[in-house]
Design brief:
By secondary structure, the protein is mainly alpha-helical. The protein contains 12 helices and 5 strands.
């Protein structure tokens, strides 16, 4: 970022000059990392040369891989923090280098197996890949990279955990609730399998939402019209045997029905979260809309009395 000798920057001008987003500058302001010293008469942020210099240092430190919490400590001028922070950063880089070395070893071993027999049949090749990839393990469950309130997209872009793209967390929550419903054992086996299919679809959606602009869409599952069409077919199939509904159902007829209603309401929240993401695929929102319909249908009981909403029931009782 070229530090131009100006003393009055709008947030858009500074974002363009620094190579960051307006959203990033707003986040820095929110957490107290770069707080503009002035506001315009209309309340808009105006950045001074001092603010620009501070942002320059932050961009430089981010380029070295430091998190925002560490950067705040470094900019605070704590000498002891400087030494400890750099030491921890070096250790983290060493760990990443070691992980890359292990990955290179696995790839080299795979290449050797393939080159030993260039006529390797497709099935044999897949078996070889399976054999080699089964040795992959997660060496560390915790990484510490999210301690400063940020996380990474699929292309390595760092974003705040408050970013709308973190709707993936709500999707994971929905998947966990579906797991409870499927594990209760009261759904017919085929319908329990539907929930497992949905859990897999939700991870496809997570991948698409969190891929980042630097990852080719061809490398990740794409949510197509087929996803929602499959849900529509399941809705039609499950709804055929149900009686006509003349009022809203009240969750709680049994544990499974109550849990499916929890899944349905979480799904509605997920849909709202996803709609806040820029340029989200309409097939994703269509899928989530159909999914809440399916969950409602599955929550109903075939041929049994259902607890229904009675509008004004309390008032009628008083009368």
């Amino acid at each position: 970022m070229a530090r131009q000798q100006r003393d009055d920057w709008s947030i858009g001008e500074l974002a363009d000059a620094a190579g960051v987003t307006v959203r990033t500058l707003r986040h820095y302001d929110h957490i107290g990392l770069v707080v503009p010293q002035e506001r315009s008469a209309g309340g808009h942020r105006r950045y001074s040369r001092v603010d620009v210099e501070r942002l320059y240092r932050i961009v430089a430190l981010r380029g070295l891989g430091f998190g925002l919490t560490d950067i705040a400590a470094l900019l605070g001028g704590d000498g002891d923090a400087l030494v400890d922070t750099f030491r921890r950063q070096l250790q983290a880089i060493d760990s990443e280098i070691e992980a890359r070395r292990r990955l290179r070893t696995r790839l080299a071993r795979m290449l050797d197996r393939i080159e030993d027999d260039r006529q390797l049949a497709a099935g044999e090749l897949l078996n070889t890949l399976k054999e080699l990839t089964m040795t992959t393990t997660i060496d560390r469950v915790y990484t510490g990279r999210g301690d400063d309130g940020e996380t990474e997209l699929g292309d390595g872009t760092k974003i705040a955990k408050t970013d709308p793209r973190l709707a993936v967390a709500d999707l994971e929550e929905l998947g966990a609730h579906l797991g409870i419903a499927a594990s209760l054992g009261d759904l017919p086996r085929e319908r329990a399998r539907w929930l497992v299919e949905v859990q897999n679809d939700l991870l496809d959606i997570c991948s698409e939402l969190s891929r980042g602009d630097g990852v080719s869409s061809e490398r990740l599952p794409r949510v197509t019209a087929e996803y929602a069409e499959w849900l529509e077919a399941r809705c039609d199939e499950a709804n055929r045997s149900l009686a006509r509904l003349d009022s809203f159902t009240l969750p709680g007829d049994d544990p499974l029905a109550a849990q499916l209603h929890v899944c349905r309401t979480v799904c509605r929240r997920v849909e709202r979260s996803v709609l806040a993401v820029d340029r989200v695929s309409p097939e994703i929102t269509r899928y989530l809309n159909r999914l809440s319909d399916l969950l409602f249908i599955l929550s109903r009981r075939d041929g049994s009395d259902e607890s229904l909403w009675e509008p004004g029931r309390r008032a009628r009782r008083r009368a």
